[in-house]
Design goal:
With about 300 residues, this protein is mostly helical. The protein has one domain. The chain has 14 helices and 2 strands, in the order H-H-H-H-H-H-E-E-H-H-H-H-H-H-H-H. A two-stranded antiparallel sheet has the order 1-2. A hairpin with a 2-residue loop joins strand 1 and strand 2. Helix 1 runs antiparallel to helix 10, helix 1 crosses helix 12 and helix 4 packs antiparallel against helix 12. The longest helix has 28 residues. The mean pLDDT is about 80.
């Protein structure tokens, strides 16, 4: 990978990690209604890339279902989760998306599920369970439960996306924005009475956060990621995105003072190792480590 492209990927991962912290700040400390926050985010995304709504790929119902799963479903439930869950724990548990996508691909698409991938799924599950474990036993807090819902919906959208052809990155962003806003606006009005007034009363900090999340993170960050995926093999790019949860953990400890003890460290290491095993073949892991070692010199 060219050094310029590697630097771009690092920057994108840092943007995604920063967005996790910003979202936590908005919904937990500024008390913005999470559904309203997500709705405004997708309205801005839709407005920014509105011209790409033309000539959608068929079938349209599948595109809309994918857009709702990967947009409204995945992001809204993650924002709800961050009201109570720490960014660090949410980042670790969200790594279940990779094994969940792998399992759903096996169930719905008939893709092969070999021993290596089963090992990766098992390790990721063990790591996530370690994060949700406390000295008194297993506890699934409300926040982390919503993370799991976000993971399942995002994974389902990813699997269904494999059956779509000819969807361009900005075109997909446009339909995610429109479909998600259409779902989230009535949901916010129903389940968050007074949410519009509460969100708008926060002022410039709310708008700064939502514009950053919509334009910088979604429009720029995700488009740059799709561009990198088109230039390089997914088996190289996907594992490198593990920088996102690592950066989220670091920023969470420093900025939001997330607790990070030996149990969390163990869970993070095991979960990320499982994701790496799923995403790459053994020879690719060695090549990746050698490549990263060379970049560090």
């Amino acid at each position: 990978m060219a050094l310029r492209d590697f630097a771009l990927l690092v920057f994108v991962c840092l943007l995604w990690a920063t967005n996790n912290i910003v979202s936590k700040y908005v919904v937990a400390y500024l008390h913005a209604p999470p559904l309203f926050y997500a709705a405004v985010r997708f309205i801005i995304v839709a407005a920014a890339v509105f011209p790409w709504l033309r000539n959608p790929p068929r079938p349209l119902w599948r595109l809309l279902l994918i857009a709702v799963c990967m947009g409204a479903g995945s992001f809204a439930f993650m924002f709800i989760a961050l009201k109570t869950a720490s960014p660090s724990s949410a980042a670790i548990v969200s790594q279940l998306m990779v094994p969940t996508t792998t399992f759903l691909s096996f169930m719905l698409l008939g893709e092969r599920l070999n021993r290596r991938r089963l090992l990766g799924i098992s390790l990721t599950l063990v790591g996530a369970l370690a994060v949700m474990w406390d000295p008194h036993g297993f506890t699934l807090t409300g926040g982390l439960a919503f993370v799991l819902v976000s993971v399942v919906l995002g994974s389902l959208g990813s699997v269904l996306m494999k059956q779509m052809e000819g969807v361009k990155p900005l075109q997909f962003q446009a339909w995610v924005g429109v479909a998600s806003a259409a779902v989230l606006i009535p949901m916010s009005l129903i389940f968050e009475p007074g949410g519009v007034e509460t969100g708008l009363a926060i002022g410039w900090r709310f708008w700064a956060a939502v514009i950053f999340s919509a334009l910088v993170v979604s429009v720029f960050g995700h488009t740059a990621y799709y561009w990198l995926i088109q230039r390089y093999e997914a088996n190289l790019i996907s594992p490198l995105t593990l920088m996102t949860p690592l950066a989220t953990i670091g920023l969470g400890v420093v900025i939001t003072h997330d607790p990070f003890d030996a149990r969390m460290a163990f869970g993070a290491a095991v979960a990320l190792a499982g994701v790496l095993i799923i995403a790459m073949r053994p020879n690719q892991i060695m090549l990746l480590l050698l490549n990263l070692r060379g970049r560090a010199r």
